[in-house]
Amino acid sequence: MLNARLRDVMAAALEIAPERITDDASPSTIETWDSVQHIRLVLALEGEFGIRFSADEIAELTSVRAIEERLRRSDGKG
Amino acid sequence: MPTDLTSADYFRLSRTLQKEPRPDLADVRVACLGSHSLQFVEPFLVVEGARLGMRITSYFGPFGQFEQEIGNQESGLNRFGADALVLWLRPEDVDPDASIRFHGSGGSRFRTVVAESIKRLVGCAQEFRARSKGPILVANFSPPAALPLGPFEANNRDSLTYAIWEANAQLRDAIQAVPGTVVWDYANLVAGSGRDGWTDPRLWALARIAVAGRNQPSLAAHLARTLRGALRAPAKCLVFDLDGTIWGGVIGDDGIDGIQLGDDYPGSAYKAFQRYLLGLMDRGILLAVASKNDLEVVRQAFSDHPDMLIKWTDLAAARINWQPKSANLREIARELNLGADALVFFDDNPIERAEVRSNAPEVQVIEVPGDPLLYPTTLAAAAHFDQLSLTEEDRARAVMYLDDRRRQAAAERAASPEEFLQGLGMTGRVGLAGDGTLGRIAQLIGKTNQFNLTTRRHTLAELSDMARDPRTVVAWMRLADRFGDQGLIAVGILRKDGECGLIDSFVMSCRVMNRGVEQALAAYLCEHARRLDCHTMIGEYIPTRKNAIVSGLYAALGFRQVDDAGRRFELDLRRSTVAWPGTIRREEAATPTPAAE
Question: In chain B, which residues touch A (CB < 8 A)?
């Protein structure tokens, strides 16, 4: 189940309606998800969830599934 | 001032602001060109611009393309149609080795890159200026976080640090060649926020973004504030409260010995604030008081309290009574010949602030924090008094208002208005606009609301063009008398149109009303019109909400009204003219040499 907080942050950063953030959304399904918006999205996620991604992670977090996975991992670490 | 909004908050707010109609905000179209990717700033700029009264629409050119964007008619920048241009070039983007391997060439490579960069920036500014009158903001240079000599940069005269300081001074001097071009003080922004962590290596590596996420809001706020300062005239007068504002406690209850004001805390907080206010006065901002108190008690505090830094005579106006503050603010504005929107109100009491906000909404009200230690920084963070450059008149203004009070006393003593004018011993100096006077002329044209016949707001760039045009006369007048120098106080612009001399603009500082200055300036303009072979002088009056006082000016100067609306007046120069008044001794300045193209 997609976290409502994550959905809101993604919608704000990608400038789209929250309903469009589905489990399988990615830059290929969301046209505003370009390289500029991707950086905005990553910074917004860091601010919202209090985490810091490595440069490699930033480059790889290009789908809702990958982002959820990554957030779950840092949750587990406490 | 950025607050604790998250990035996501900025994105949401920015979207809302872009969609909503906001008639309270001034539309500003800004084009930004950089040596690195600038797009990131957009949502932050929209939100921070709105806080300062601007609805900002922005365009960002592809990074590294300055000349292409400016020079090509079909470029994104030229199709966008900008009101303002931001140029942000970092020498390290042009040549990374020049700063990181600074000592490899003894700094000469860096100096070359800087000299070429400044030349490029000035070239771009010139080209933009040829098409647009809007302000141009040029970012200055900031040292990188990692300095080649670590903590010993400042010990070495040949370090990168000194080279950058010198480069910034050169940049400042070079852009003076293009009127209306301003330094965007990026170096002090970065220093103020802290160079460590200013950039985020991940953002640079992945997206060529030179500013870390957490600094993006303050960057946008600083840019928006600079832009606002380049577009808007500053407020002129700070009106402050007394109890709880410039001293602690309540003078009516606690008495002179009981208020908090001195060298120990908490009195020291108030003393420091008084010192800050006097610093504002030094740069030309008028100080005035609106306080609910008994006048006698307050006068005694001003004269007898040993730690009172502000003197009664430093005040341009004071209203110490039990009237609502909004009414007192309006009276102060009237007394100082200012619009209420030129006043900024500082009061520790939220109830008084709310009363002023609802009953005198034009007055700009500062949100004052509870802790007096924060008063100076609160005022410094507010943009109201931001001013691009200080003119001689600004620095002298506070003194001039005090001279005015003495003039007022002399007027009351004189038996007749004529005797008063004779007794002033006035000297009027007239001349044509040149490099030394254009700044003050632009300021007077930009901010005079009352004694302004046409309210045409010519920018510095436009005035500079007019001053060079042989068919246009940009004339100024200074006034001095035995009480002091009043500076450059009137401007008239005459345009030759066939056999007619059209008075495009006629503005005067209200401080010198009823002294004959308007007659003297009109006489000077008539002489120039005759020299340009004009047969008829044409004066226009364009009414606004504020300039009713000059509706009868041309009739009083002997012009004939030629329309029913009372907006157009003529004077036949072949039969008559306006005579220079006998009460003002005349001096004429040498004609300035035209500024270089």
Answer: 6-9, 11-12, 15, 37, 39-40, 43, 201-203, 205-207, 209, 213, 216
